[in-house]
Amino acid sequence: MKSEHIEQALRILSERRIAAQADYQARFQTIQTAIPEIGEINQQLSQASLSIMQIIQSGQQVQEKIAKLQAQNQAAQQMVHRLLIQYGYPDDYLEPHYTCPKCQDTGYSNGTYCSCLTTLAAQLAAKELNQNARLNLSQFDTFSLEYYRSRKTENGNDCYQAMEKVLHYCMHYAATFSPQSKSILMYGKTGLGKTHLSLSIATMALQMGYQVLYDSTINFLHQVEREHFGKSDSDEQDTLEHLMTCDLLILDDLGTEFNSTFYQATIYNIINTRMNRGLPVIINTNLDYNGIANRYEERIASRIYSAYTCLHFVGIDVRLLRAQEEKRKSELDALQSQINPHFLYNTLESITWMVEANKNEEAVFMISELAKLLRISLSKGRTVIRIADELQHSTSYMNIQKVRYKDRFETEFLIEEEIKEYCTIKLIIQPILENAIYYGVGNMDEDDGGKITVKGKKDGNDIYISVIDNGMGMSEEIVENLLLDNGKVPKLSLIHI
Q1: Which among 196, 178, 210, 191 has a CA at the least distance from the CA of 141?
Q2: What are the angstrom distances between the C-alpha of 29 and each of 22, 23, 26, 35?
Q3: In a domain? residue 330
Q4: Is residue 383 in a domain?
Q5: 289 located within any domain
Q6: What CATH code is carried by the domain that includes residue 282?
């Protein structure tokens, strides 16, 4: 144990003791005011203590008089307890509340270090070693099994079911963790959630007050190496001791460290010593049994696979899936942010004009449709809504536009009822309708019979929603070159969808 950690722990205990005594004095003053009888009893107890000292000094009938005064003191203390309870206070309200009753926050008990001091010093050492680790950044409730749904392992097994079992095991392990818990080997390809779940276990163990050390294997080994060969700034060699004695050790990315004799011996020493002491280890690695056996000595592999619970992580790289998901979300956000703000301003101006022209019925209609549109647009921050709500949004949008364009076109919705309760990404129809108006039927005369049709149907497991207009359209040449990056498509024509 480093002296600096002992000194820091003593300072913390001293602060706790001072705080406990200050709290006691505050409670004492409160009682003196609230229950005057207790104040009088305390004065009697103080006087009795002085009397006992005087009796001892006189040497006359000491035992008899002391016994009598002690009996009076006990009766007085019992009276204090009864009064406290009578007035609604705990019976220990007038006692100092130390963090450690054993040493009263002094750090010493029976002439040696109290267990609270050594435990606190160990926690400080663990905190120092964990300062570069990502502890407390993962929770079980942020681990999504949806990334594993509809995926199969190389053996044809269901990834979702396999990872569901892994998750439930880890949650139970964390909830019931103790320094006597079993060790765990988490193995599988990169990005499947090993670090996330091990950090979630670490978070819960830390919340329960256990000493947890978490870092990549290579970082721990580098620190041990620096201390062993005198490369560390500190003269004390403590890291290996903490790795051997902490309540839970998590070695992340086993197998990524440099393959040296010293590292192999250190890994074996850590695993073997903690196994002999019955202390748990969680190992995360991309290596399977053969990989571990080939990289390390057979005795390391045999100890791991004989004594550890092995959890196989399957699926595809979750980090890659999340990156793709974030990209899609950002693209969606960008699309939704492009919804023309002038539409809102123009609509409000149209409502103002209707009110000024005493067209109150039309104004009420516009306000009602605008309210429906905005309600669905907000959707309490959700990006996925029912198709029925998306269609209502589109209907309100078109009703407003028909008023603004003085009924130059008509709108028809041909939607199969069975698809309306399915979900869709919010606001995917409106931008297409906007294009259909602006670059299709919006410039047509009323007599031209402009029409926009929205169709929705289910075909097998797929749902199709299409927007069709009878506007100006595109030439065959533009259609042929639309998806080609050959510069032959006129800029204006790109939006003729």
Answers
A1: 196
A2: 11, 10, 5, 10
A3: no
A4: yes
A5: yes
A6: 3.40.50.300
Q: What is the CATH number of the domain that holds 387?
A: 3.30.565
pLDDT at 260: 85
Q: How far is CA 66 from CA 38, 47, 76, 80, in A?
A: 23, 13, 15, 21
Domain boundary residue, one of 250, 285, 316:
316
Query: Where does residue 328 rank: exposed (0-12), middle (13-18), buried (19+ CB within 10 A)?
Result: exposed
Of the candidates 251, 321, 322, the residue with the CA atom closest to the CA atom of residue 281: 251
Final residue in a domain of this structure, among 113, 140, 155: 113
pLDDT at 199: 87
Contact 440, 471 (CB under 8 A): yes
Structural domains in the chain (count): 3
pTM: 0.49
The reply to whether 380 and 462 lie within a common domain is yes
Q: Which residues pair with 252 in a beta bridge?
A: 216
pLDDT the model gives residue 317: 75
Instruction: Work out whether strand 409-415 and strand 384-386 pair parallel, antiparallel, or are unpaired.
Output: unpaired
For residue 10, give the 3-state DSSP assignment.
helix
- pLDDT tens per residue across span 352-396: 988 988 988 888 998 998 888 888 877 666 778 899 999 998 999
Looking at the structure, tell me whether residues 107 and 161 fall in a common domain: no
If you count them, how many residues does the chain have? 497
Whether residue 162 sits in one domain with residue 300: yes
Torsion of CA 403, 406, 407, 413, to 10 degrees: -30
Q: Is residue 331 assigned to a domain? A: no
131-181 confidence digits (pLDDT tens): 555 545 578 888 888 888 878 877 778 888 999 999 999 999 999 999 999
Categorize the per-residue pLDDT at 494 as very low, low, confident or very high, splitting at 50, 70 and 90: very low
In a shared domain, residues 304 and 211: yes
User: Residue 142 carries which DSSP code?
Assistant: G
Residues of the domain holding 265 = 130-316
Q: Which residues are CB-contacts of 192 (< 8 A; sequence separation ≥ 6)?
A: 163, 313, 314, 315, 316, 317, 318
What single-letter amino acid sits at 250? I
